[in-house]
# Entry
Amino acid sequence: MRERRSVREARIASRSREFDAFVAGAAGRLLHVATLLTAETRTRNPHARTLLTDALAQTYAGWDRLRDDDPYAYARRELAVRFARTARRHRRGRGGVLSALGPGERLVVVLRLHEGVAEEQLAALLGLPEARVRAVCARSVAALRAAA
# Structure
């Protein structure tokens, strides 16, 4: 019985070390993505920090299932899904560069242009046709150019 417990504890400790290493390497970039999504500034981004914390908690919960998958892609997907669910809270930007765009437009622009997610993957994630993703991206970029 004690052997099982020690094996389980060792596995949990290993999992925690792996996750800590992942967070140390990816948290800054994921926070930047969250800040762009919420259209907050880099110095004042409480909603982005909450969004990132929730996404990382979900990533940790599913860590054992990510054996061959990219943990960054999983965490980014969690971040995007959580943002989409709470998009009505982020209708107005709080001074960020992308505050001129609506939440859905920010989501497409950030994931497509900043993160380089393929149109097919983005369409599948958002449940939209690829043509719609292309159109939203083009319209959003045009709006940003006009605002600049």
Observations:
- The radius of gyration is 18 Å.
- The mean pLDDT is 89.
